[in-house]
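A reminder from the course coordinator: this example appears on the midterm review sheet, so study it carefully.

Given structure:
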């Protein structure tokens, strides 16, 4: 018996729609002919590092006791944006915030953060909570971007501000891999920024 389709012809879905679905990531990605796996990714790590990193770490640690991270906006402005803006400055890459992207009725919406530098692309999805469903939304955003930019490999990350998880899209194998490793802010800030800088290098 054929499996019932999740996505219905004639219906419209935004990226946010996939976060709200109760289906598992592999079931949703199968609708786009992508497979899903979880593994320890060998992420690139640059030896280059911003000289402002100690200041950024201290700034985050000083501000954390003063801010209630009870909303997505609070997490984005306090923890996510400062890191990405410093990475963009260091790499001299473009950063788009709330970047609109429309491929078709099933692939459309805004990317929270989209960084690109020559042929390197990085998508960041910031959520208030729920990394698992957030990763599903990120994966669909990566599929959409891959149809527009056509890279062989595309990296993305989902974050709830103090925790980050990376993903990798392989367009030739039509596979998305979710990294096992979690990176915490501020404790893993150096590792995190090394990965971000290397991806965009």
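Designed residues:
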């Amino acid at each position: 018996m054929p499996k019932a389709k999740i996505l219905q012809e004639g219906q419209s879905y935004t990226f946010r729609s996939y976060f709200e679905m109760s289906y598992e990531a592999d079931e949703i990605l199968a609708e786009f002919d992508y497979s899903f796996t979880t593994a320890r990714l060998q992420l690139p790590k640059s030896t280059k590092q911003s000289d402002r990193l100690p200041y950024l770490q201290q700034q985050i640690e000083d501000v954390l006791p003063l801010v209630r991270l009870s909303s997505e906006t609070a997490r984005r402005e306090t923890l996510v944006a400062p890191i990405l803006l410093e990475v963009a400055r260091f790499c001299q890459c473009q950063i788009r915030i709330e970047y609109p992207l429309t491929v078709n009725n099933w692939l459309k919406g805004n990317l929270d953060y989209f960084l690109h530098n020559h042929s390197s692309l990085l998508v960041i999805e910031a959520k208030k909570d729920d990394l698992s469903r957030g990763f599903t939304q990120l994966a669909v955003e990566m599929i959409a971007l891959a149809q527009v930019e056509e890279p062989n490999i595309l990296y993305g990350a989902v974050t709830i501000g103090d925790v980050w998880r990376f993903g990798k899209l392989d367009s030739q194998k039509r596979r998305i891999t979710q990294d096992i490793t979690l990176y915490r802010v501020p404790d893993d800030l150096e590792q995190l920024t090394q990965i971000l800088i290397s991806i965009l290098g």
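The mean pLDDT is 94. Strands lie at 35-39, 94-104, 107-117, 120-126, 153-159, 163-170, 175-179, 183-184.
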